[in-house]
Amino acid sequence: MTELKESFGSSTAMTITNLNSLGPSTTTGWQSAVVDNTSDKAIDVEVNVILNVDNTPPVTYSRVYIYVYAGYYDGSVWKYTLNAAGTEGTIFLTKPSNFILVKTLAYMTQNETLKSGGFFIAKAFGGKMPDAWGIIIVNDTTGTFEASGNAVTYKLYKEAVA
Question: What does the pLDDT average to over 158-162?
Fold first, then answer.
C-alpha cells in the first residue's frame, strides 16, 4: 500500500529591497519576484510577513494589505495577473481589488511590528497552486516601513511517497 508523507521545506527569504522604507499609499505597493512552481511542484506554500512601521501614530483604519498574484507559463512566455511584472519592485495598483487579498494587518499602535502569522497560497487559488506566484504588499498606514527588520519568507509544502 502506498503511503503519502507530508513535508515542509526550509524557510526561504524573499528579496525585499523595495519593501524596505515603503511609504504609505493606496495606489503604489511592493511586489515580490515570482516564485516558479513548475519544477518544485509544491502543493502549497506557507508565507510569513513581518513589517516594522516607523514611529508614526496610527489613524483610524490604518492597514497593510497583502495580495497574491499568479503566473501562468504558456510554454514560451510568462503571463501574470494584471500589471504584475514577476520581478521584485514597486507596483502601481490600478485595480487592487482584482488581485487576491489574502491578509489584512491592522496598524493599531505607534512603532508597531506587524506579523502576519503563516498563510497559505493554494487557498487563494481554490486549493490548487498556479505555475508561479508572488506577493503584493500595500502600506495603507500613516507610517513608512523601516529600512530594516522587515521580512517575507516562505516554505514549500510537498507530499511524497513514503
Answer: 80
